Amino acid sequence: MGSQKKRPVVLTAADREELVRVTTTGIHPASVIRRARVLLALDTSAGAIGSQDAVAARAGVSGETLRLVAKRFAETGGDVHATIARKKRELPPVPSPVTGEVEARLIAMACSQPPQGYTRWSLRLLEKHVALVEDIPNLDHSTIGRVLKKRNCVLI
């Protein structure tokens, strides 16, 4: 098995005890329990563990899951908690271009009189006029529709 030779998983007694507790209490997410079972199956501190297929069958996962958990264990420097827990997000989520001020200006525009030649505002017409205003970022018609729906504004 390639991952056992490249990235051997050696657990201390305390780590093994913690993983057994995680797998038997049933109060953790299923993915955490699955990764804990995989680490226990990959533990080489007790001796040889067998082939990759045997370990995968014993843990109830695929060979790829074995490889990924062993790789994560090696990347975290043998930290069991970091291996079984969910990874922290590297980048923060993208902030919305619709702030309170943008929302207020958009609603004011939708409540105003439509331009000459039009009987009412449409989402695409609002999109074109928002693009002309320099203070408001360019918004898609679907975003404009979501903002108006959120505030119960109906285009009549």
Q: Into which percentage range does the β-strand content fall?
A: under 5%
Low-confidence stretches: none
N- to C-terminal separation?
A: 68 Å
Give a quick account of the main beta sheet: strands, pairing sense, barrel closure.
none
Mean pLDDT over the full residue set: 88
Please give the radius of gyration in angstroms.
Answer: 28 Å
Order of helices and strands: HHHHHHHHH
Number of discrete domains: 2
Organism: Streptomyces sp. NBC_00119
Pfam families: HTH_32
Protein name: Helix-turn-helix domain-containing protein
Can you give keywords for this protein?
156 residues, mainly alpha, Homeodomain-like_sf, 2 domains, Helix-turn-helix domain-containing protein
Q: What's the structural blueprint in terms of helices and strands?
A:
Blueprint: H1 2-6, H2 13-25, H3 30-42, H4 52-59, H5 63-75, H6 80-84, H7 100-111, H8 123-132, H9 141-150
Q: Can you offer a commentary on this structure?
A:
The structure is a single chain. With 156 residues, the chain is mostly helical. The chain folds into two domains: 2-84, no CATH class; 100-150. Helix content is 57%, strand content 0%. The protein has nine helices and no strands. It has helices at 2-6, 13-25, 30-42, 52-59, 63-75, 80-84, 100-111, 123-132, 141-150. Helix 3 packs across helix 5 (63-75) and helix 8 (123-132) crosses helix 9. The longest helix has 13 residues, at 13-25. It comes from Streptomyces sp. NBC_00119. It holds the Pfam family HTH_32. This is Helix-turn-helix domain-containing protein.
